[in-house]
Design brief:
Number of helices: 9
Shape: globular
Structural class: alpha/beta
CATH topology of the largest domain: Rossmann fold
Strand order of the largest sheet: 7-11-6-1-4-5-12
Number of domains: 2
CATH superfamily of the largest domain: HUPs
CATH class of the largest domain: Alpha Beta
Order of helices and strands: EEEHEHEHEHHEEEEEEEHEHEHEEH
Distance between the termini: 53 Å
Length: 305
């Protein structure tokens, strides 16, 4: 049996969710193959231990759309028992289309591997865990990056195989994209996150969240309520329909703690909640709680750091 991991990159190297996906994959197979879309740092990536082969392209495949990526993976899929990707927007973009084309049922958001075809995944916003057994000839999985430790062992010497360049299809075409640029850490891999909720009150008031985050060298997050209210873009949303994070420190400011939000951050090592409502659900999962006016407390905390 063989395993292909489709890797998401950050600055040319596998990001934290992808490294966690590699850890999970090595519970299924002793050696795995990787598919990367940018060969810029392929000489470093091939040194990851227990990686047998790295597939890539001669040039970086910029602005690749799901339809074209799937066409490429179809050709590789028949050689593998497992096709695995990190859970998140990256895999949500192409895994359903790939599964439909191969007539497979993917098991998404896996948090535990029992054996070669039995897995745990959260359901009902994380309030229950489903144990799923797959009988597909090719098992497709997405891995929740917060459920496995990032793989950081080097010393390997993987074979490199360059694939033919992906041709643009005629059914869908890339038009443009808008990128949010920031010097702050990337949300899904940050060690510290400061998140704001509906209680922050407005887009202008989010500046106090930004000031605290800058002092802590932290990433900024938000609840869905804050995003829906227009306080901040949905790139920063944490929760069931946003990003799932597990930083060393998560500071929730003005967030009540709906189960959809808790599903995206409750695995954080230390959770600090700041809210004027002492009965807010967020305090049930918080390690430390501060009850009071955030507009007075956050500037004071920022000043003391």
């Amino acid at each position: 049996m063989t395993c292909l991991v489709i890797v998401e990159l950050e600055n040319g190297m596998p990001n934290r969710p992808s490294l966690a996906t590699i850890s999970a994959s090595l519970e299924l197979e002793k050696e795995i193959d990787l598919l990367i879309l940018n060969p810029e740092k392929i000489d470093e990536i091939k040194q990851i231990k227990n990686v047998k082969k790295v597939y890539s392209f001669k040039n970086k495949t910029a602005n690749l759309i799901a339809e074209d990526l799937v066409t490429c993976v179809y050709k590789l899929a028949e050689n593998y028992k497992y096709i695995i990707a990190p859970s998140g927007t990256f895999s949500k973009n192409f895994i359903p289309r790939l599964a439909a084309g191969l007539d497979l049922q993917p098991v998404t958001d896996v948090i535990k591997i029992h054996d070669k075809n039995t897995f745990d995944r959260p359901i009902y916003a994380g309030n229950a865990i489903a144990t799923v057994r797959s009988n597909d000839k090719i098992i497709m999985l997405t891995i929740r990056g917060t459920a496995f430790q990032p793989y950081n062992q080097n010393g390997g010497s993987a074979e490199i195989e360059l694939l033919p360049e992906i041709l643009e299809g005629d059914k869908a075409k890339f038009i443009n994209k808008e990128i949010t640029k920031t010097e702050r850490p990337e949300l899904s891999s940050a060690k510290i996150i400061v998140s704001g909720g509906r209680g922050v009150g407005s887009k202008d008031n989010f500046k106090i969240i930004e000031e605290l985050a800058d002092k802590l060298n932290a990433a900024i997050g938000a609840s869905r309520a804050a995003v829906d209210a227009g306080y901040i873009s949905n790139d920063y949303q944490v929760g069931q329909t946003g990003k799932v994070v597990a930083p060393e420190l998560y500071i929730a400011v003005g967030i009540s703690g709906a189960i959809q939000h808790l599903a995206g951050m409750k695995d954080s090592k230390i959770i600090v909640a700041i809210n004027k409502d002492e009965d807010a659900p967020i305090f049930q999962v918080a390690d430390y709680g501060l009850v009071g006016d955030l507009f007075k407390m956050i500037p004071e905390i920022t000043k003391e750091i």
